[in-house]
Design goal:
Residues 1-81 form the Protein kinase domain. It contains 2 helices and 5 strands, in the order E-E-E-H-H-E-E. With 81 residues, it is an alpha+beta fold. The protein has a domain at 20-75.
Length: 81
């Protein structure tokens, strides 16, 4: 989640990190090495572990909903339950 602030009482602005694309885009550009797969899997598992610790479930986990921000992969489009 990004940061938010009220500039006035009528509008809410949300500022988020700029993603370089999704895991789906990254795969389409030419595949992944074994080391990349291990790294991405560990990062996704860490994110899911955190959500489950909060009694939340992602509900729509797929490569298009995993965003690349610098060298990190982050869960996005959380249809939480």
């Amino acid at each position: 989640m990004g940061e938010f602030t009220f500039f006035n009482t009528e509008m809410l602005y949300l500022v988020m990190e700029l993603a370089q694309g999704s895991l789906e885009n990254h795969i389409a550009k030419g595949g992944l090495s074994a080391d990349e797969i291990k790294n991405i899997t560990a990062q996704v598992a860490q994110g899911l572990n955190y959500l489950h610790g909060q009694n939340k479930v992602h509900r729509d986990l797929k490569p298009g909903n995993i965003l690349k921000v610098n060298q990190q992969y982050k869960l996005a489009y959380l249809a939480l339950r």
